[in-house]
Design a protein that fits this description.
about 210 residues; alpha/beta; Rossmann fold; seven-stranded mixed beta sheet; three-stranded parallel beta sheet; 14 strands; globular; binds uracil
């Protein structure tokens, strides 16, 4: 964890190794997409460390015992379109029974303001824990807008997970939603004048889907 208790830096060597491979500008679309999925699955271990579990009885080949299981149906992975999709695949590998929500936001290229074009979530959000997936916490505008929109539905809890953050994005999200924990694999230096993170990963949507 970093100085703030609500910013979790997932600095496991495996995660850092894969983030470094993703930074390479000559990484193929195939390998970039696979790495997004793998890093997200690895980050799920940290993000879900405090996930709610309940006890169940289980019959082993030897005898009956008790174990704990996560109730995946109470968990909602919210993909912020379109770049969140790659992270969603990795998270679902770890918790295949989780529910999925989608928020479509695009960034106005001139003002960087987040504009919503799609919103679809499971019902009964007051009983569900939400994990918002958006790979780049850059200006923070889309993260703030996504969390704000989700909170209108009064979910049980909200966490925000990204691959890379920068100080500007963390400050914006912390200011708007101080109680929402942020999970990131790295905190990069700064934003450039186009709202991209430096040194960063470039445009994660384009790199994931090969639309460069
Ligand atoms: N979105 C991206 O894909 N990359 C950035 O650096 C910032 C926002």
């Amino acid at each position: 964890m970093t100085g703030s208790q609500l910013v979790h830096l997932v600095d496991h060597p495996l995660v850092q190794h894969k983030i470094t491979l993703m930074r390479r500008k000559d990484a193929s679309t195939n390998s970039f997409r696979r790495l997004v999925r793998e890093v997200s699955a690895l980050m799920a271990y940290e993000v879900l460390r405090d996930a709610a579990v309940h006890e169940v009885e289980v019959q082993t080949p030897m005898e009956t015992t008790t174990g704990t299981v996560i109730d995946g149906k109470k968990l909602v992975f919210v993909s912020v379109l379109r770049a969140g999709t790659g992270m969603l695949d990795g998270m679902l590998e770890v918790v295949p029974s989780a529910r999925v929500g989608h928020i479509g936001l695009y960034r106005d290229p001139r003002t960087f303001v987040a504009v919503e074009y799609y919103f679809k979530m499971p019902g009964d959000l007051d009983e569900r824990d939400l994990v918002v997936l958006d790979p780049m916490l850059a200006t923070g505008n889309s993260a703030v807008a996504a969390v704000e929109r989700l909170r209108e539905q009064q979910p049980k809890s909200v966490k925000f997970v990204c691959l890379l953050a920068c100080p500007e994005g963390i400050a914006a999200l912390r200011e708007a939603h101080p109680d929402v924990p942020i999970y990131t694999a790295a905190i990069d230096r700064e934003l450039d004048e186009h709202g991209y993170i430096l040194p960063g990963l470039g445009d994660v949507g384009d790199r994931t889907f090969g639309t460069r």
